[in-house]
Amino acid sequence: MEKFRFEITHTCKQSGARTGILHTPHGSVLTPMFMPVGTLATVKFVSPEELTAINAGVILSNTYHLWLRPGADIVKEAGGLHKFMNVERPILTDSGGFQVFSLSDTRKINEEGVTFKNHLNGDTLFLTPEKSIQIQNDLGADIIMSFDECPPFPSTYDYMKNSVERTLRWAKRGKDAHQRSDDQALFG
């Protein structure tokens, strides 16, 4: 059986909306679903046991923040996010792309990647599509995201066009860098 599979259970005749089951190596979840946010590898105010009891969907963690602390190497050494967080539920990590937007005052974008100022200590960081995928491979989430730029609103047509085209090139680079396609699904 495939480790990742989406099974459609119902399609609305009027709208085309659908419900389904997303199957992952760490469990199956009904869609649509609620995704509790565990930015720093913990869902605030909810224990791992409570996440199971309420049948929480996929847990969302943040690649950029986990890269800074505790560090992808520490999470990997602990056995990946599932062991680090003590959860046996599907986990999705974002790519760090949202920080391209949210840290816009301290970042510079070029074809290779994005230079940031670490919001914790001011150090200069450089995140590329390949580095984002490597971090997410090390974190061990079930579903990982392709590195992208989240352009601000409003933006000019030319800015948006360039951003989308660069994001597509970054997606190809990220796909080429992905090392765990047997147990991680890459989205984007």
Structure explained in plain terms:
With 188 residues, this protein is an alpha/beta fold. Helices cover 32% and strands 22% of the residues. It has a four-stranded parallel beta sheet, covered by helices on one side. The chain has a three-stranded antiparallel beta sheet with strand order 1-2-3, with no helix packed on it. A three-stranded antiparallel beta sheet has the order 6-7-8. α6 packs across α7 (157-177).
At CATH's second level, what is the architecture?
Alpha-Beta Barrel
CATH class: Alpha Beta
- What would you report as the Rg, rounded to the nearest angstrom? 17 Å
Order of helices and strands: EEEHEHHHEHEEEHEHE
Which oligomerization state do the chains in this entry correspond to?
single chain
Instruction: Please give the share of residues in helix.
Output: 25-40%
Query: What composes the largest sheet?
Result: 4 strands, parallel
What is the terminal separation in angstroms?
23 Å
- The parts where pLDDT drops under 50 for at least 5 residues are none
> Can you give the mean pLDDT?
95
Number of DSSP E strands: 10
Main sheet: strand order: 4-5-9-10
Specify the CATH homologous superfamily: Queuine tRNA-ribosyltransferase-like
- What count of structural domains? 1
Based on helices, strands and strand pairing, what is the structural class? alpha/beta
Write a concise synopsis of the structure shown.
With 188 residues, the chain is α/β, with parallel strands linked by helices. The protein has a single domain (34-187), classed as Queuine tRNA-ribosyltransferase-like (TIM Barrel, Alpha-Beta Barrel), CATH 3.20.20.105.
